[in-house]
Amino acid sequence: ITAVTNGTGPYMLDHWTPGEEHVLVANPNYWRAEGDPMWEGGPSGTAPLQTIIVRLVDEFGTRFASLQAGDAANVTVNIDQRSQVDPLVGEVCQGDGTCAPSDNPDGTLRKWENLASTSRTDAFLTWNVAADSPYIGSGQLDGNGIPPNFFSDINTRKAMATCFDYDTYINEALIGEGVRNNGPIILDMLGYNPDGPMYEYNPEECASYFEQAWDGALPETGFRFQTAFNTGNTVRQTIGEIWQSELAAINPLYQVETIGLPWPTFLNAFRASQLPIAVSGWVEDIHDPHNWIQPYTYGTFGGRQGLPDDIIAKYQDLASAAVTESDPAVREQMYFDIQQQFYDDAISVILAQATGARYEQRWVNGWFYNAALPGTYYYGMSLTGE
Asked: What angle do CA 122, 319, 159 make, to 5 degrees?
């Protein structure tokens, strides 16, 4: 694995330059015979695309210029960048493969829109922040910081959940292309209960929760801490700024500062439980509810949030029982119950599932949408004129 190539697929690794690019070439000895398609109407034989070049380009302006010039078949376009690319779209397609001309039918690009996303950005509240954290001010409940266990009080967590303006987030940060989720499990997946409860934006409730927290000390004492995002991610920056504005409006002594950190610094601080609130995301590995429940409770995020042992044990038992249940109806109800428990415990602030989009040149053929298939499946794709 890593630097060692494995497998017998339709492509071979030509070379990999970490941090720059990797290049694939068609495998002339691929075992699937011509005329023996993977599925009816699917690809067979040697891959039509002989060479695949995948480059890592962080700067969107550079990616956009390559797309405009026709040098790139497709590029990554973040949700806040779509408005810059949309004027070039001549054809719009849906996940089921249906396509129609855009308002600019002569546009050079094809856009696949309204793709159900298998990722989500959320706000993870750290119940037990590392004592050496530089992001909790004085580390005391003295108006100039917060104690490391500030979010161990459920009222502070419920306050953060009800002080967040979800509509503003969806409309401004996600440009209206998002839908709220009521727990770790994403929309339309087994275990997602459309009738399940979710916290709503309610400043009065938020103020009340803060009044109940920490033996009623917060309204007069106040607090100060920093919420972090990875620099350059404007969607995640907006999340912190919403809280900064909303909490200050309730009480000027409630001070939240939004800070951007380079990705390596952010990730290291998150892993070390130094961030009182970490705005981060999850991309599923397997299209199954367990792949959402596990990291959000006793796995990746639960550990970084410093969840208590009894909380971790509770969810580990619940999730282990659900993942091994063979009856889909029973399993669904088990996940309904876990989602309800997650709401009751207010472990994190669940935000919204953005809809995905893909932009490609109109001379690209054969791409298809599969929510359970990460990345691009190049086998079977072709370019017009080749």
From this structure: 35
Q: What is the pLDDT of residue 80?
A: 84
Tokens of 189: 């997946």
Looking at residue 346, its pLDDT comes to 98
Closest to 52 in 3D by CA, of 370, 366, 382: 382
d(CA 242, CA 246): 6
Place of tokens 């002569």: 106
- Which residues are bridge partners to 16 per DSSP? 22
Question: ∠ CA(313), CA(299), CA(307), 5° rounding?
Answer: 55
Q: Which residue has the tokens 């001010």?
A: 137
Task: Please give the Cα distance from 146 to 223 (Å, whole number).
Answer: 6
pLDDT at residue 216, rounded to an integer: 98
- What pLDDT is attached to residue 386? 52
User: What local confidence, expressed as pLDDT, does residue 372 receive?
Assistant: 78
Distance CA 218, CA 106 (A): 59
CA distances from 46 to 29, 83, 233, 302 (A): 8, 38, 40, 45
Give the number of other Cβ atoms within 10 Å of residue 62's Cβ: 13
Sketch the domain layout of the chain as residue ranges: 119-347
Strand, helix or coil at 190?
coil
CA torsion sign, 40 to 41 to 46 to 49? negative
Reply yes or no on domain 119-347 having CATH 3.10.105.10.
Answer: yes
3-state DSSP assignment of residue 282: strand
Q: Is 255 helix (H, G, I), strand (E, B) or coil?
A: strand
User: What's the rounded Cα separation, in Å, for the pair 335 and 358?
Assistant: 31
Q: Which tens digit of pLDDT belongs to each residue from 324-334?
A: 999 999 999 99
Output the DSSP codes for 214-253.
GGGTHHHH-EEEEEEEETT-HHHHHHHHHHHHHHHHH-TT
Residues in the chain, pLDDT under 70: 1, 385-386
Residue 373: C-alpha distances to residues 99, 284, 286, 369, 376 (Å): 21, 10, 9, 8, 8
- Look up tokens 């495998």; give the residue: 27
Q: Which of 121, 172, 185, 153 is nearest to 276 (CA)?
A: 153
pLDDT for position 4 = 82
CA distances from 375 to 81, 360, 371 (A): 19, 14, 10
